[in-house]
Amino acid sequence: MTKNKKAIIEALIFLTILCGGFGLLAWKMGSGNLLNTMMNTAHSLILNVVLYLMGITVLTGALSKLMAEFGVVTLLEKLLRPLMKPLFNLPGVAALGAVMTFLSDNPAIIALSKDKTFASYFKKYQLVSLTNFGTAFGMGFVVLITMIGFGQAAPALIGLLGAFCGSIISTRLMQRSVLKSYPEMDSPVVEEISHKRTDAEPEVQEEKKSLFMRILDSMLDGGKNGVELGLQIIPGVVIITTLVILLTFGVGSAGEYNGSANQGVPILPWLAEKIDFVFKGLFGFDAMQLIAFPMTALGAVGAALGLLPSFNAAGILDGNAIAVCTAIGMCWSGYLSTHTAMLDSLGYRHLISKAIVSHTIAGLCAGIIAHFAYLGFSLL
Predict the structure, then answer these.
(1) For the chain, is the Cβ count within 10 Å smaller at the N or the C terminus?
(2) What's the CA gap between 199 and 14, in Å, rounded?
(3) CA atoms of 133 and 125, how far apart (whole Å)
(4) What is the SS3 assignment for 123?
């Protein structure tokens, strides 16, 4: 088959799927209502969700920068270091990666792993498992604060526990899978690099700043980082969440399709109801609309967070849902959209499938653990 014929066939298949999908929605909702709903939903998401999340990322960015400036990050790293080897089979310095990704986003772990001094502590199979390890904590601070904002602090912390367990499962599974296929990766990444300053490296004298200026600079710099993160989540929130809402919600309180925001055809809940015993048994979901959250978190946890106001308005965002969604959202945190780029930047593209399979299993386990932990908590 020639390249041109292949391109034509690919285009025809794409157009068939696109027209068929939107044709089905238009047949049920009406073409005019479908277009108006898409525009109104996207507009509502920008005003009511994106700006809210950006406010959170700005504040958490400022707080995380303050924590770094005044040594809290270093303190946390030292406190967590003893847990790294027995739980994650990683050297103690990996704790810094957990703290940084929790306070920012998944790619922070790659910036660390590319540092030769940092990488010198790891064996090759351990270094590639940082992709799974860091992703399980990515945007954790934003997810946690957002969940607590719905008045569910205890369930959110239970979800954090579930995500932590999921991170252990994901990291261990990745390491085991890599070693089984590539036993030669049980070797150091690079030779150990001295951390002592040599005479050829002059000591840099930093300009002394007053306490007020340190606080002000940290907050402003962290806030700027928060704005950048807030901008980065806009496409995922608007595009993915609009599509998920169209496939999850029905006519709503209007009682008929009129082009209002957050209307759609409940295809995903209909499919979920066919195996509802799975979601009820494992996650405790009573409303099948909730399955949209983990499905969206596969690609972007920021987009998944955009679903929460609609869930809350529908009265289905209870304590168990908060716990499970926190666990899955934090553990997965858009790994399908980040694992490929992260492993490719490390030069281990051939391990992408192993990382994705390991993280898929771990995210499901995180949600299950959070559900049963919440059941135990509710009995107290």
Answers:
(1) C
(2) 62
(3) 12
(4) strand
Block residue for tokens 């005479």: 199
> Is residue 215 predicted with pLDDT exceeding 80?
yes
**Spatial distance between the Cα atoms of 211 and 207, rounded to a whole number of angstroms:** 13
Neighbours of 337 (CB within 10 A): 16
Looking at residue 220, its amino acid is L
Identify any residues that bridge with 188 across adjacent strands, giving them in sequence order: 123
C-alpha to C-alpha distances, 112 to 68, 122, 127, 194, nearest whole angstrom = 15, 12, 10, 17
User: Closest Cα partner for 147 from 128, 161, 127, 166?
Assistant: 161
Per the DSSP assignment, residues forming a β-bridge with 123 are 188
Length of the chain: 380
Give the global pTM: 0.73
The helix (H) or strand (E) run that includes residue 331 is: helix 319-332
Q: Is 239 left (phi over 0), alpha (psi -120 to 50) or beta?
A: alpha
Cβ pair 118, 112 in contact under 8 A: yes
Model confidence over 170-212: pLDDT tens digits?
999 999 999 999 999 998 886 544 444 434 344 444 457 788 8
Is there a contact between 285 and 321 (Cβ–Cβ < 8 Å)? Answer: yes
Listed as own residue / partner, the contacts of 191-200 with beta carbons closer than 8 Å and 24 or more positions apart are: 191/120, 192/120, 193/116, 193/117, 193/120, 195/117
Instruction: Round to whole Å and give the CA distance between 57 and 47.
Output: 15
Higher-pLDDT residue of 248 and 188 is 188
**What gap in Å lies between CA 303 and CA 312, rounded to an integer?**
16
The answer to whether the CB of 324 falls within 8 A of the CB of 367 is: yes
Q: Helix, strand, or coil here: 294?
A: helix
DSSP letter string, 15-72: HHHHHHHHHHHHHHH-HHHHHHHHHHHHHHHIIIIIHHHHHHHHHHHHHHHHHHHTTH
